[in-house]
Amino acid sequence: MNQMLLITYCLFLSASAFAFTNYVWQGSPSPVSPFDTWATAAHSIQEAVDVAVEWDVVLVADGEYNVEDPIVIATNYITVKSVNGSAETTVDADFKSSCFSLFGNSVIEGFLIRNGKLASGFGAGVYIFNYGSVVNCLITNNSAPSSSGGGVYCGENSLLFNCQIKGNDAMWGGCFFQNK
Prior knowledge:
Number of strands: 18
Number of domains: 1
Number of helices: 2
Shape: globular
Distance between the termini: 10 Å
Radius of gyration: 15 Å
Low-confidence stretches: none
Strand content: 35-45%
Oligomer: single chain
Mean pLDDT: 89
């Protein structure tokens, strides 16, 4: 099954060459949907995700993106990717909510994901329902004290690739995989 997930990820990469790009940059002077240039980039990741359609790429500029609600990715086959990786791009929930909820067969790539917290539910840092992928991320300091997957909860056929998961806590594991 891991081969299938790797093939799916490779398809994401090849399809993204033909995809539309939605930009996110907090310093954008004129944010206007569909956020198709840096000058009209969305100020929040969720805004750009909300207008993305299958095979689109949401490209996120360096910076710290604070969230009060999780970034919900429900569209299949989109990639939410930072420009310069987890050393330069942070999603921080400040213990107000989880950071990401991934419901579509999509990819999150290149983020520091921190300070997510859940009173109930799964995955304070990242919740992957099924078939999603998290790549090249550092997932740290997230907490789900009465649930599973403080850092990340991976549903069926999910993929974590080249991620560091450390300093997370939960009742049942800082990283939880549902195996089927």
